[in-house]
Design brief:
Largest sheet of chain A: 5 strands, parallel
Strand content of chain C: 5-15%
Strand order of the largest sheet of chain A: 2-1-3-5-7
Mean pLDDT of chain C: 84
Helix content of chain C: 40-55%
CATH superfamily of the largest domain in chain C: Cytochrome-c3 Hydrogenase, chain B
Mean pLDDT of chain A: 85
CATH architecture of the largest domain in chain A: 3-Layer(aba) Sandwich
Strand order of the largest sheet of chain C: 2-1-8-9
Number of helices of chain C: 14
Low-confidence stretches of chain C: 1-19, 354-358
Distance between the termini of chain A: 31 Å
CATH topology of the largest domain in chain A: Rossmann fold
Structural class of chain C: alpha+beta
Order of helices and strands of chain C: EEHHHHHEEHHHHHEEEHHHEEH
Oligomer: heterotrimer
Shape of chain A: globular
CATH topology of the largest domain in chain C: Cytochrome-c3 Hydrogenase, chain B
Number of strands of chain C: 9
CATH class of the largest domain in chain A: Alpha Beta
Number of strands of chain A: 12
Strand content of chain A: 15-25%
CATH class of the largest domain in chain C: Mainly Alpha
Order of helices and strands of chain A: EHEEEHEHEEHEHEEHEE
């Protein structure tokens, strides 16, 4: 962590389309003093013209699609876009609704995807650091996570029998299982981190790690084969 | 631990307002008013809570999708009736403004939403 | 220190279209109000008809990020009623503890946003910092700060072990101390209480006719609290009464919610230690005959009502009436004949779901103008700018 006390200003502009507000509140929490965001001084812009980083939560629906397009047109050309939370990345659990007009990258190119349902405040700050200043990016201090915390999946290959029970039980259809090729993958951009797959697995081949830094710059990179593939 | 006591009843459209007046006299509270569609039939369900804590669901089948306003009996039926008109196309004999769907929507039903808003496709 | 021009003003993407609350002004007074609440319309009632019962709670708890447990409890009760099963004793205690922790964090968040909107940023910072305590406790119990994923039919997924109960007890002491300090700061701040006293009065009679629920009803003298009907959770095993006030103004509503936080802490302390036993229930469930039933829970904002017409494997119809929906209608009564500068205080005092309250559309019938203004601008008197 750099000791330099001079802070770099980052102006963020927040657009909330239609979600449950969980990610918005975690964004609000991330700029409290508890989450030390050095070396950034995060300023929240009131107008799109001032935006340096645009953070969008929720997915686009037919009621607000035109308005979001207009807002995005007003932002300066050099702005970066972050999609916060799985509603914006894939629709999350609301995919298939009649009022869903698509994920955010259908409208605009997204520079950073932060998966989570909801996202963790520390993940937002780490991703912001990577996006704004990639050469000097650093990880903020490790949070004290409980042993129950559900981060990225662990998949233990020698225990898995590729029965597909996890894929069938997933509320948002985020898991893909191929029995013949013996392949297992989870789309972190769709996953709700609800724990259902761990519960239904007959051989205890799935568990959750403490990794909350799952942000990536490309949508395809959000597919994960499980963080820790060796058994515990 | 006690269990919720729930009673369900169906009633004819002509007898609805009279029944609601009787419930109001017995100090029941209107919790909610929902619409429903089963097959080709449309329904309105009045959800009431009696003074002794019992929940009472009163279902009315609507022929021709026409219903009568209950706001003269229960004032809080207003917002719920606006929603039923908007989502199911039920008619209450009055002009009512939209709550959820864009004002340009020609057909106020949830089933026509996608076609109405500039022919956009859904991502389902 | 970070710049605290907080996201309340940027929560909503629309700067042009008519907003959630419309206020009509004439002769400097509010003469009419109206609503448009469709920006967040996700079609959840229709989506619910496509999900089997084991996946349904995960959809329903994501209706709201602040009161997620209230929705998940209500749908669990509805499906349990339809299937004819009762939750086991330990699960009832655990559900009550989680519900009270959620109530504490929701009221703290509300108090922070009210303080910020009316210009008192110190209390905003204190509230949000204090709120981290219940959130960390919820993460320790369930694995997530929001969207706990604890619901099972007839039980609950995770246990609160005796070790966690010890941590819970200690943290509750901290939360109580911080909240009492904030209450003291609030009630001795005359500028703050002056902005709330005698504003937005809702009489007991009118409150009963409009059918308001939760702290709004309690502040007008109506004793309405779903925890007292002896159906949900373990509340029937302990002793408490609903907190009420008589005046029905914004100040009463604030006092009811702040006292609710302390009462929730006392309720959890009465529920500990949690009796031993098994806590698990069933994930997958099937209903024999289609049946119409309901489920209710006391959300932080009031009575949360779910009506379920249960089919064999999926719902045939699910109707959700959250508490804010019942409370919207009292805005008209409270705002009529008032001044525009009081409108933000009135709207926030009914504690509507966070994202729809930061702006309103002010329609001036005398000057024939229509402008969207943030709460901050209205409170500071900048709504008259061109």
């Amino acid at each position: 962590m750099p000791e330099d006390t001079s802070k770099r200003e980052v102006w963020i502009y927040h657009i909330n389309t239609s979600g449950c507000n969980g990610c918005d509140i975690e964004l609000l929490a991330s700029i409290l003093e508890k989450y030390d965001s050095r070396p950034f001084d995060i300023k929240v812009a009131n107008y799109p013209e001032e935006a340096e980083v645009v953070m969008i939560t929720g997915h686009i629906n037919w009621n607000n699609m035109n308005a979001v397009k207009e807002e995005m047109n007003k932002t300066p050309k050099h702005r970066k876009i972050m999609a916060l939370g799985n509603c914006g990345i894939s629709g999350g659990v609301f995919k298939g609704s009649y009022n869903e007009a698509g994920p955010i990258d259908k409208l605009e190119e997204v520079d950073m995807y932060i998966p989570g349902c909801p996202v963790k405040p520390e993940a937002i700050l780490n991703a912001l650091s990577e996006l704004v200043d990639p050469e000097n990016s650093f990880k903020l201090r490790e949070p004290k996570l409980s042993e129950n915390y559900r981060g990225e999946h662990n998949h233990y290959q020698e225990k898995c029998i590729y029965c597909g029970e996890c894929a069938r039980s997933c509320p948002s259809n985020a898991i893909k299982v191929d029995r013949e090729k013996k392949e297992w993958a989870v789309d972190l951009g769709k996953c709700l981190f609800c724990g259902r797959c761990e519960e239904v697995c007959p051989t205890d081949a799935i568990s959750f790690s403490n990794n909350f830094d799952m942000y990536k710059k490309e949508r395809e990179a959000l597919w994960s084969k499980g963080k820790n593939n060796e058994s515990k | 631990m006690a269990k919720e006591k729930v009673f369900n009843e169906s009633i004819d459209r002509e007898k609805v307002l009279e029944r609601l007046k009787k419930e109001k006299k017995e100090r029941s509270r209107l919790i909610d008013l929902s619409g429903d569609k089963r097959g080709d039939s449309y329904f309105i369900v009045y959800h009431l809570e009696r003074e002794n804590g019992e929940i009472f669901n009163l279902e009315v089948e609507l022929k021709d999708k026409k219903a009568e306003r209950a706001i003269s009996i229960f004032e809080n039926a207003d917002l719920y009736e606006r929603e039923c008109r908007e989502m199911y196309g039920l008619e209450f004999g009055e002009e009512m403004k939209n709550l959820f769907l864009p004002s340009g929507a020609k057909e106020p039903t949830v089933e026509k939403l996608r076609e109405v808003i500039e022919g956009g496709e859904s991502n389902a | 220190m970070h710049n605290l021009q907080i996201p309340l003003g940027s929560y909503h993407p629309l700067m042009k279209d008519p907003e959630h609350f419309k206020i009509y002004l004439q002769d400097g007074k509010i003469v009419d109000t109206d609503l448009f609440i469709g920006y967040n319309h996700r079609g959840i009632e229709k989506l619910a008809e496509m999900k089997t019962y084991d996946k349904l709670p995960y959809l329903i708890e994501r209706i709201c990020g602040i009161c997620s447990n209230a929705h998940s409890s209500a749908i669990s009760r509805a499906v349990e009623n339809a299937a004819g099963i009762e939750p086991n004793k330990k699960a009832r205690y655990i559900r009550s503890v989680v519900a009270e922790l959620e109530r504490i964090q929701s009221h703290l968040l509300w108090f922070g946003t009210q303080s910020h909107s009316l210009g008192f940023d110190e209390l905003f910072k204190d509230s949000l910092t204090c709120r981290e305590h219940p959130l960390d406790l919820l993460e320790k119990i369930s694995g997530s700060r929001i969207h706990y994923g604890l619901s099972e039919f007839g039980g609950t997924k995770k246990d609160i072990t005796p070790e966690k109960q010890g941590v819970l007890k200690k943290e509750l002491g901290e939360i109580r101390a911080l909240t009492e300090a904030m209450k003291e700061d609030f009630s001795s701040n005359e500028q703050y209480t002056h902005k709330l006293e005698n504003i937005g009065v809702l009489s007991k009679k009118k409150a009963g006719e409009i059918g308001v629920v939760g702290p709004v009803a309690k502040a007008s003298g109506i004793n309405l609290d779903m925890r007292l009907n002896g159906v949900n959770g373990a509340y029937s095993e302990i002793d408490f009464e609903a907190i009420t006030r008589k005046k029905g103004d914004c100040l009463s509503r604030t006092e009811v919610r702040l006292d609710d936080i302390i009462q929730s802490i006392e309720i959890i302390e009465q529920l500990l230690p949690i009796p031993k036993g098994k806590h698990r229930g069933k994930g997958r469930i099937e209903i024999d005959e289609p049946i119409k039933t309901i489920g209710r829970a006391e959300a932080p904002r009031g009575e949360n009502f779910h009506y379920l017409h249960a089919g064999k494997k999926k719902p045939l119809r699910l109707r959700i009436r959250p508490p804010t929906y019942a409370n919207f209608m009292c805005l008209h009564e409270m705002a009529m004949n008032g001044k525009i500068a009081d409108a933000p205080a009135i709207v926030i005092s009914i504690d509507p779901c966070f994202n729809c309250t930061d702006r309103m559309c002010v329609i001036d019938l005398d000057e024939n103008t229509e402008k969207v203004r943030t709460f901050h601008e209205i409170v500071e008197g900048k709504d008259k700018d061109a």
